[in-house]
Amino acid sequence: MGKTKGAAEALRLSKNALTVLEKRYLKRDKDGKVLEKPEDMFNRVANAIASAENNFDAQVDTAELAGRFYDMMVRFEFLPNSPTLMNAGRELGQLSACFVLPVGDSIDDIFDAVKYTALIHKSGGGTGFSFSRLRPANDVVMSTTGISSGPISFMRVFDIATETIKQGGTRRGANMGILRVDHPDIMDFIMCKSDQTHLNNFNISVGLTEAFMKAVERDEEYELINPRSGGVSGTLNAGKVFHRIVKQAWSNGEPGIVFLDRLNRDNPTPVVGDIESTNPCGEQPLLPYESCNLGSINLGKMVKDGEIDWKRLAEVIRLAVRFLDNVIEVNNYPLSQIDERTRANRKIGLGVMGWADMLILLGIPYISAEAIALGEKVMKFINDEGHAASRELATERGPFPNFKGSVYDKPGAAPMRNATVTTIAPTGTISIIANASSGVEPLFAVSFVRQVLDNNVLVDVNPRFEKVAREQGFYSEDLMKRIAEHGTIHDLEEIPEDVRRVFVTAHDITPEVHIEMQAAFQRYTDNAVSKTVNFPNCATVEDVEKVFMLAYKLDCKGVTIYRDGSRDMQVLSTGKKEVEAAPQPEEKKALKPVKRERPKALKGWTYQMQTGCGPLYVTVNEDKAGLFELFTTMGKAGGCAASQCEAIGRMVSLAWRSGVQARQVIKQLLGISCHAQSGFGDNKVLSCADAVAKAIQMHMKLSGSEVDIEEKPFERGACPECGGVVEHEGGCMVCRVCGYSECA
Fold first, then answer.
1. What is the pTM of this model?
2. Which of 58, 289, 442, 536 is surrounded by the fewest CB atoms within 10 Å?
3. Per residue in 535-548, pLDDT tens?
4. What positions carry a catalytic annotation?
């Protein structure tokens, strides 16, 4: 198709936005060469989505509408979810981000779901599942007279399948796993991610019922139900189960909680089926075999002369609803069942990003009652205008096929084109493209220190704060560094009080305010609100419990929390931490390592390790005292990988000859991650350094001196691809520099 008509000002992209687009969104040839500019991408998407108009009128000229779509996107007033930007107008053509698949209680059903998951992940989508239909572990299997292995064992099958598929994709596959709180295996499920090396391709949430929450309030027993028979299989104390959920969430952020009865209370098509699960970040409840395409309005672009431009906001809402409904028409669905159910309900999810930006432009602190009231007002306006636009489309195109029997099917009520209209999603990489704050989250930081892969330390500053600082004359490099080290600006007196009042960040905000803001947006959102409730590292288990109960009382549909530093170490720093070396006894201070001299002949063993850079041959040599030296040879000569491996070998050899034990060497190298990984499960190799560590482990085991060291995933807080800024958002991690996302 040709260029769109109309349009706009020149496309202005931040450095990070350009990096993200070039790395993840723009079309490439088979050799990886970028074939389109960002303007071409938006033009491609606008034309593809506008072409849906010909499904209703073959004679209509779509160029004018494509121009309006293009303008809206290049002005960053609205952006669709990532699969639409990546795939619209291209051969793959899969445009949805959110899917839910059923998992039935038979081997055929389970492995059908695994196969369907692979197809969805291959196409760029994320999947949600309820494992609540599966019979519990050690339950009877009549067909084989054996016993079942239970939901958690099958979750590992899905996890390994996801790990395999994601190796070659543009987007990593991600899953949501939900188990009802009355399932007999619930206690094992709550703890299934306590080891952070397991189920890394899953977010998990416990599906709470109203009956369970009432039992928590009364500190009563509640019944466990065997899904195979429907019978009661035991009881548990609700308060103790709830406390275990809270304690585990405090420990590492998972599980989250989902209020299942509330999802079904607002299910627009109850005659079609019950809602069992959500997408990976929790904001989109869906029926089995249903998908949803999302898009977000940039509220930071809806402020004009210090006031909200309600007129332009209304125009963008109506245009965005039409855009998202058109996506359903041109979408290439990965399964026929998904195609059928999605078209029958036509759910769309219009949300927002740039909420923190809007508040800053209006001079309203995120932490204020005024901000919470405005959030409710803005979302009511978006929901009302969005529903009005959907009704207009229903008049023009007809209601969604499952309209009869839906919650909208009332005497005298106008039909709806879409079963749901609004969703608040974590905007992840699209907010980087728009240079906007994420979703309805506060600013992550005003200024932060980033340690990049060469150990250099960089300071990144929020562009709005930098602009204000320069305009008001208090900007300096030294101040920006001190803010990054300090973690907050609220007690820095050289910054004007009115600036300190407005530029609040995630950790300046109490967890209660996080929930109150989530609840404000939830009141006028059809689906759910994805929001992370941030806690400082010093928060207690009781603090988390209070927030979970507040979310229940304020009618939220789910909660995700993250306590700073609770998932391994964070390289991203918004506060300076001083670590003093432990004092040593005088006799230890006097000891000096003596390097052993190399004899002319040594015995050794060579191990072949498969890495993402090709085969790596690791040779371990010993002298009479034990481990002496290590050599590496890459299967393909030259390159950075070979030189880095040679450097690792030299340093390991020096360490061994100076008396350092194998355990210390393995501990330093094991779990280091890079972009080129290999294998999966027990055979997964994260990097060449990780391969060296595993080769040493293998050698020690074969020589009768097995070294068992817990393997850690990449350091959460730093991007595994670029070392950049990682934010915890809706149960997911997103890099604000290169756009890496833990979730699809």
1. 0.80
2. 58
3. 988 899 999 999 99
4. 279, 281, 283
